[in-house]
Amino acid sequence: MKKLAVALLMGAMVCSLSACGSKETATTGTDASVETEGAAEAGNVLVMATNAEFPPYEYYEGGEIVGIDADIARAIAEDMGMELQIEDMAFDSVIAAIQSGKADFGAAGMTVTKDRLASVNFSDTYAKAKQVIIVKEGSDIQSADDLTGKTVGVQLGTTGDLLADEI
Fold it and tell me: At 111, which CATH number?
């Protein structure tokens, strides 16, 4: 419970660092948009950019985006007296959405890097990730050095993408 409270506080810090935008539509967790009566005009919509393909942090369940980051964002929006609008997009579009003002903040299992810090602010880290190489059982690939000359599959814009480029 203490970790959740700390995560919520850190998420609130992220929100306080970005201006709350006003949007004309809100999503219901699906690709469909619906009118938000008065909320956009009053500046009461908090827009979160995410890539809902990273359970348990953000994913679809019954047509709604759920998960740890979505729960934190909903609690922050509620605490701020705002309506949360979650925009699902390609992972490598999350920062661009924040920079362009299409989203107020992003929550997408994103690792802090120097390049990303030059573009956006981050909350304190509330989850630690580790990059690994996944291969078939019995593979002769034992380390990153063994990937030279091989084709590697990664999600664009992720830390895995950045590390694969280095290899």
Answer: 3.40.190.10
